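Technical annex, item 7. During the second reporting period the consortium partners agreed on a shared format for inverse folding records so that results from different sites could be compared directly. Each record opens with the tokenized structure and is followed by the designed sequence. A conforming record, contributed by the partner at site C, is shown below for reference.
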């Protein structure tokens, strides 16, 4: 099973090196790595070129934002499965993709997903723990969704439904994409009850009050478009995030021996 990993970046010189190393160091051997750069003006391209022999496809050209760049990556991918690693994130350890491959083979599902943690400034300080839980289609009406960065999907499903990210959405394109797959097309999915991904906090959706408002508007468009619910769904989508900021306090700090013993899948990658 070939797994295509797509990294989209624009002026990401501070974090791109760790993202690249996170993919390149994976124990799973059959990875197609695709990097889409939006014509960066800092040292991003220079850093990428240091690892060029480990990258299967690299494009640097102007695009119309994150979702346009992701669509480019999807069109170029030749793997059996497609996953995403954002330029300021990384996997928890070198066995993350191996876990994904095993889950696909054992479950024979159309997609798999796991848990993730939010960290601060590429450190190992946990700010939020997104424990996904098992999927039930009824959960979608209560604002549930799996974390987009750890949602891996078979390429033939994307091709079958001619799926792309809606570039008219600036923030909620990933939510719309997942609602189509799980809600509209009702594809099968499998939950990996492990944290496989470290996400750097401070994304575009929470960057400012105006962005939060815009995200809510776009989320509502996605909810209505995919006939999932209404304002109650939007309300729930925001409320259910609150426990994620509390539950992380129960998790020991990364790197401690006790933590590694009880949470081996959260070891520093």
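Designed sequence (site C submission):
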């Amino acid at each position: 099973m070939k797994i295509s990993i797509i990294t989209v970046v624009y002026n990401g010189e501070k974090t791109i090196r760790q993202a690249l190393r996170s993919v390149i160091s994976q124990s799973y051997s059959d990875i197609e790595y695709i990097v889409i750069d939006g014509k960066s003006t800092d040292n991003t391209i220079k850093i990428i070129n240091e690892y060029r022999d480990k990258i299967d496809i690299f494009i640097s050209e102007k695009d119309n934002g994150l979702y346009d760049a992701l669509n480019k990556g999807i069109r170029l991918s030749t793997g059996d499965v497609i996953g995403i690693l954002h330029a300021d994130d990384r996997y928890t350890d070198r066995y993350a993709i191996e876990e994904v491959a095993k889950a696909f083979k054992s479950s024979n599902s159309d997609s798999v997903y796991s848990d993730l943690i939010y960290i601060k400034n590429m450190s190992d300080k946990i700010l939020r723990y997104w424990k996904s839980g098992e999927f039930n289609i009824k959960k979608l009406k209560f604002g549930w969704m799996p974390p987009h960065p750890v949602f891996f999907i078979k390429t033939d499903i994307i091709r079958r439904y001619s799926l792309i990210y809606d570039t008219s959405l600036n923030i909620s394109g990933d939510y719309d994409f997942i609602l189509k797959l799980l809600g509209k097309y009702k594809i099968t999915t499998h939950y990996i009850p492990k944290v496989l991904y470290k996400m750097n906090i401070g994304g575009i959706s929470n960057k400012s009050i105006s962005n939060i408002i815009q995200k809510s508007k776009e989320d509502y468009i996605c909810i209505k478009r995919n006939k999932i619910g209404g304002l109650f769904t939007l309300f729930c989508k925001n409320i259910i995030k609150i426990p994620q900021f509390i539950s992380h306090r129960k998790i020991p700090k990364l790197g401690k021996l006790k933590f590694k013993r009880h949470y081996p899948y959260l070891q520093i990658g």
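The first strand starts at residue 3 and ends at 9. The radius of gyration is 18 Å. All partners now use this format for quarterly exchanges.
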